[in-house]
Structures are given as structure tokens and as C-alpha cells.
């Protein structure tokens, strides 16, 4: 999927209506693909990692 999106020559337009976290954001035509437009719903959430993963990382940091 990433190969197909990155090698396509058509304009990329992205709609985010829910949550978009981590590698899925990049794989599904994220900002790294230089989209023509990225439209987001007012309640959309975009982050580097999901809340569960963030909580896991923070608990590891707290332990060390």
C-alpha cells in the first residue's frame, strides 16, 4: 500500500474523520506524501502515537 501511494502520479487528497495515529497516518497518504489537500473533520485526532502506546511509554519512563 505504501509503495502504491508513494509511486502514484495522481493528486493526493486526504480526508481525516476519526483518529489517525502512528505509521498508519503516514501509510495512508500522510503529510510526508506532499498532498494537495488534507481535510480534517473538527473532531479528528492526529498524533505520532495512540493514547494506549503513549501511556505504555510513559509508564516505562516513570519506572526508569
Secondary structure elements and pairings:
Layout: H1 2-7, E1 13-16, E2 19-21, H2 23-27, E3 37-40, E4 45-47, H3 51-63
Summarize the structure.
The chain is an alpha/beta fold and 64 residues long.
Whole-number average pLDDT?
84
What structural class results from the helix and strand content? alpha/beta
Radius of gyration equals: 15 Å
Order of helices and strands: HEEHEEH
Our count of domains comes out at 1
Give the CA-CA distance, first to last residue: 38 Å
Major sheet, described briefly? Answer: 2 strands, parallel
Q: What level of helicity do the residues show?
A: 25-40%
Number of strands: 4
How are the strands of the biggest sheet laid out side by side?
1-3
Helical run tally:
3
Please provide a written account of the structure.
This protein is an alpha/beta fold. It has one domain. The protein is 38% helix and 22% strand. The protein has three helices and four strands; from the N terminus they run αββαββα. The strands form two sheets. Strands 1-3 form a two-stranded parallel sheet. The radius of gyration is 15 Å and the shape is elongated. The termini are far apart.
Amino acid at each position: 500500500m505504501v509503495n502504491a501511494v508513494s509511486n502514484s502520479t495522481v493528486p493526493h487528497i486526504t480526508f481525516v474523520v476519526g483518529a489517525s495515529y502512528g505509521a498508519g497516518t503516514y501509510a495512508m497518504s500522510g503529510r510526508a506524501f506532499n498532498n494537495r489537500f488534507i481535510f480534517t473533520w473538527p473532531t479528528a485526532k492526529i498524533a505520532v502515537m495512540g493514547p494506549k502506546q503513549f501511556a505504555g511509554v510513559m509508564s516505562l519512563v516513570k519506572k526508569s
